[in-house]
Amino acid sequence: MFKGELRIAAPLLAMALLLAYPLCATIAREPGKRFAPLLTTGKTVVDETIVYPTGAPAKITTGIVSMDPGDETGWHTHGVPVTGIVLEGELTVDYGDKGTKVFREGQSIAEAINVPHNGKNLGAGPMRLFVVFIGAEGQATTRPVTP
Predict the structure, then answer these.
(1) CATH number for 15
(2) Domain count along the chain
(3) What mean pLDDT comes out for the span 86-108?
(4) Which secondary structure element, helix H or strand E, spans residue 102, and what is its range?
(5) Please, which residues bridge with residue 131 across strands?
(6) Strands across the sheet with 90-94, in order?
(7) Are residues 79 and 144 in contact, defined by beta-carbon separation less than 8 angstroms?
(8) Which of 32, 93, 126, 134 would you label with 54, given CA atoms 20 to 30 Å apart?
C-alpha cells in the first residue's frame, strides 16, 4: 500500500472530497454548471481496457498519496481500476517499455492496471494525488512487483 493511503468505505465521500477541493471549484466557471468532467475514458494511460473486478462485493477505496521531492512509489501494479487527480505538484510515472508520463496539478489520470509502473516526485515541492481504487472485497489495490 502507498504511504498515507486512506481507506474510506462510502463512495459519496470520495466525490464530496474531490468536489470540495478548491482546485475543482475553479474548473466549472459557467453559470449554473455544477459538474465539470475531468476525465471520461474506457482506457488507462497505457491503453489498457478498463475492466471492473467481478465475483466479490464491490469496494471503493479513496485516499491522498503524498510524496516529498525525490520520493518514489516503488514498482507496482494495481489489478483494479484506479483514477485520480494531481492536487499539488507533479508526478512522473515510468511505465517501462510503454514510456514515461508527467502528470501536473489539475490533471486527471486513469492509471495503468496490469502494467508495472513507478511514480516519482522529481519536482522541487511536495506532490499530492487524490486517488480512487475501484476494486472488490478481498482484492489488493496495489501489488509490488519487480520491473
Answers:
(1) 2.60.120.10
(2) 1
(3) 98
(4) strand 100-104
(5) 63, 84
(6) 100-104, 90-94, 118-120
(7) no
(8) 93
